[in-house]
Amino acid sequence: MPSAQQAEPSLGVKSVAFAALLCLYLAPPAFGQAALDPMQDAFAAMMANPGQPDLALRYAQLAAAQGDARAAIAALERVLRINPSLDNIRLELASLHLAAGSPDLAAAYAREALSSPNIPPDVAQRARLLMARAERGAARSTLDVRLNAGLRYDSNANEATALRSVPVFVPVLQDVAAVPTAVRGRSDWSLVLGASAEHRYDLGLQRNGSWDTNAALYEQRFARIPRGYDLSIATLDTGPRFDVADGDSARLTLRPFVTASWIGYGGETYTWLYGGGLTAQLALARNWSVELTWLGRFGNYENSNFRPRAREITGAEQIMTAGLFYALSSQTRMSAAVSYTDADAREPWWARSGLGAALAVSSVLPISTSLEVGTSARLGVRRLRFDAPDPFIDPTQSRRDTRWEAGASLQLPVAPSVMLTLDYEWYEQNSNYGFYEYGNHAVMLGVRVLL
Fold it and tell me: Which residues form the Surface lipoprotein assembly modifier C-terminal domain (predicted)?
């Protein structure tokens, strides 16, 4: 184990590594690299052999993967006119229309396929699933509910510093002295329960418009460490979502919202957070999209026996986030995001601001007509600067925190609406205040049910 005197890894080295990883994912092909266009090759092969549905299907899949749903739909409709008995092509059209936001057309194609007396059993099963999704998508009011339960192991469940001593201001000496840490990091198991609900109500506008409401509950109960570490969270946000511009190459969607959250530790209120914000999403051609979110809220923190100074954190805060999303294919998506946080507080040593960045990738692998394996990974960093020194810890310098996070997730289907989940999480916080310097590794095995 490294000693307290060893130098911490510099932010510069980690930032360069993070930037290199981001560039590796998002950089375009090198100048002069031979440019291959499989979509043009597939189009040429399809036009040369108009009676071959497999060639049309290949072109449609490539076109859909590049965000050109209209070209994909046109190619498959042409094949269906030549051979109306191809129920698998009808299902591909149903899937494309569903992804393009036309559930009525998707349901019609799926219904036509099911009406065929010669439809194979595996194709019929997929048709029933697509028709159910399409009919649900066409409904004016929809509700999605997810339930989660799992066992989690944390290597440092109480997030205690690994340093054997930390610098603390001693009033009698009027100086900072090294004080042995009284609390050591402890590993522990916990039971994690969660639930989330998403409700969408179609407003019936000429442009796409809906009223979206999201709610979530989270509960974590540890086995051995003090009850004050048990975490409870409840969140709610609601607001309209509507298109303000919709063209052939781009679509702009806005969603103003109000939000409220409650966070508790050990069954006692830690904070109420309430406010509102605005999300703007710009969907571009070629599978790119940009999302900007501004959130302004007020945090009302309450003291407790376990956290007697929490009320000092009370104040207004705002968070701005910009995200860039890219679909490598219909199964794989990547995203990069930057954020800025600015929070006021009753005491200046809790007022804080800073930047963050994150990179994520997710993918699904279909293993049958109704089941798919999901994977995801993420990496992030956040730096916070506090406005003034904390007189109870070190009146000579303000606090500076840098937090690195990474994680990975695997979802294994058991049934169409039930899956096993395996999650790994790591984070490390470096700080010039030793109390706030800690790290943790966590693994969770759980089950997720979709209702």
Answer: 229-445
Residue type, position 425, single letter: E
pTM of the model: 0.75
Mean per-residue pLDDT, 406-435: 94
Q: Please report, as a single letter, which amino acid is at residue 156.
A: N
Separation in Å, CA 37 to CA 145, 184, 315: 41, 58, 54
> Rounded CA gap, 247 and 283, in Å?
10
pLDDT value at position 35? 44
Compute the distance between CA of residue 339 and CA of residue 15 in angstroms, rounded to an integer. Answer: 15
275 and 312 fall within a common domain: yes
DSSP state of 229: G
User: CATH code at 124?
Assistant: 1.25.40.10
pLDDT at 338 over 60: yes
Question: Which of the listed residues 105, 138, 171 is the one where a domain comes to its end?
Answer: 138
Q: Is residue 254 located within the same domain as residue 174?
A: yes
Range of the domain at 294: 141-450
- Mark whether 74 and 110 lie in a shared domain: yes
The tens digit of pLDDT for each residue in 221-242 reads: 999 999 999 999 999 999 999 9
Tokens 């066409």 correspond to 138
The SS3 call for residue 369 is coil
- Number of domains making up the chain: 2
**pLDDT tier at 402 (50, 70, 90 boundaries)?**
very high
Res 7 pLDDT > 70? no
pLDDT in tens, 178-199: 556 667 889 999 999 999 999 9
> Residues in the chain, how many?
451
| 147 and 133 in a common domain | no
Same domain, 153 and 83: no
138: phi then psi, degrees, rounded to nearest 5: -80, -15
- Which of 93, 122, 138 is the last residue before a domain boundary? 138
> Euclidean distance between the first and final Cα of the chain, in Å?
47
